[in-house]
What does this fold into?
Amino acid sequence: MAEKWERLVDALGHADGWTTASELAERLGVTTRTIRNYAAQANSGGVIVESGPAGYRLDRAAWANRGAPARRDSSPQVRAVRVIRSLIDATDGLDVHETADANHVSDSTFEADLTRVRARLDGTGLTLVRQGPRITLEGPETARRRLLGALFRDESARGMLELDALRAAFPEVSEFRTALVAGLADAGYAPNEYGLNDVLLHTAIALDRVATNHPLDESDAAAPPASTDGSTSPVAASASTAADGPLAELLARLVDEHFGTSVGPADLAHLTRLLETRAATRTTAAAQADAAGRPISPRVPLVRRIVAGASAVYLVDLDDEDFIDRLALHVDNLVARASTSNLSRNPLTASIKAAYPLIYELAVYIASELARTEGIAVDDDEIAYIAMHVGAYLDQRRSRGEIVRVAVSAPAYHDVHTALAARIRSAVDDEVELVAPGEEAERADVLVAVIEPSSPVERLVLVAPFPTEVDLERVRAEIARVRRARRRARLAASLSRYIAPELFVRGLRGFDRDGAIRMLGDRMISAGVIDRAYVEGALERERLSSTAFTEHLAVPHAMTMTARRTAIAIAIDDVPIDWGGASVNVVALIAFAESGRAEFQEVFDQFVEAFSERENVQRLVVGATDYPGLLAELSRLMEPHAA
It folds into this structure.
């Protein structure tokens, strides 16, 4: 169990900037006074939680480089980690009495620490063995290294700061990383910058273990994973011979150049497998050249079938051979990782779920079909990587929005007006229509002017006659707000139509995640919207990946559009319930009919977007005490300032 103040640090680690005390108190289920106490405890050995008028913010550099302050050195959690690290290095084990003395604790306290050690070892492939006063760690070297990596990540700040901590421990890592990225590109591989950090960590661990006479041998090297029919998969087969391939040659050369050492064949094969399956994917061009007319991946037909199913269900065009080829290459690596339970972390998972819910939903569909077909488990981080492939493809094809009419007003002096209009035109997308000032301007959505007009204008952007990039960015932002306001208005109208009085529930206390889904499902069944099979489908979808797309909001649903009519059942409570680790105040069970398939895209995306903003959720929580209050709050989404 983490120290209580560490919950505050963890919450701030997820935040992008300042967070108010009230929001933190709501998220952690404590009072604002407790938040102040947590901040004081966190800062007892040096400031890591900054405070100011805007609330609290984590000093990430101070947290990453805290140097294990004394207050943490004596905590049970730190002692347990210290014991594990000592056990990993101790070939002959440790004496419990000597270790207790070294940690300045009594024998009884140390026995409690060993309970924590056993709990931390659970599921790692390592076992704590005790014979009299002596304790040893039993298990393969690969498991020891995986545990070292997990301990390092636990102690590092989140996201890319892990790389900063790794640089501090191994200064050579920065130049090694740069050379590795360049070498991968030269060899025809596309690097995964996020997965690459894990490879760097395990490279550093391998070098440290080799230096202390703990190299891998052939018995430690992981066996090639098998495909679902029991035969060795092509990806696994290539990994099993990786020590002879171009990636192994690249790694061996760079380890020698940057660290001045070498590793044995088993270590090199292990690191090469990690690199090949976690951080290096063959580019389609290179793979096609190697395939000599054959499919670049044996999974191309499977991926094509799954993608076609996703396209049909969600009415999104994913029929593109280049996209399918790239995704198939990624899936090869995904299956190889999943076959050895060595899935890759993705620091963007939460932001992808919140910002692109429909794209993430497409990825969930693809991942569920892969899991069923290949017999593997696919977690949220791996789903987010699939979403990145889908999102990158759709971004190239998407329409940026509806036509927005922009009037440009400037004094008639030489060609100032025409120059300004041309500058605005070049700064916006093709779905912006410039209109001339005068009567046409009255029907414009946005007025861009050099001088403030005599009569008030709802959406006005004042710019210099020769606009700066800051001016142009404000114009683009205003155009985006217009589009957003239109979407919000359509969303509010849809929600008012879909949420009937009998589908509104005030109160979630006493329900867990499954209970909330079943409760709202019962409401929909009674209203004749869905059947019991739809509720079970929503529960199955929830097991694939949490539908808490944002903090405070969960949107459970099934992956089939089998409702008799489109409807939303919504439950709201000012006291959040736990939803797979998220604190949720609003639960909206969405059921779409086949006829509502086209509308699903916008309603689903915009619903998550609208209520990803804490103030909108808070207004619902406070104002929607009954059905009329719910309608009143939804109507406010249509107001201009709500955009």
Summary: The longest strand covers residues 567-579. Residues 67-72, 157-161, 222-241 have pLDDT under 50 and may be disordered. The first helix runs from residue 4 to 14. The two ends are 42 Å apart (CA to CA).
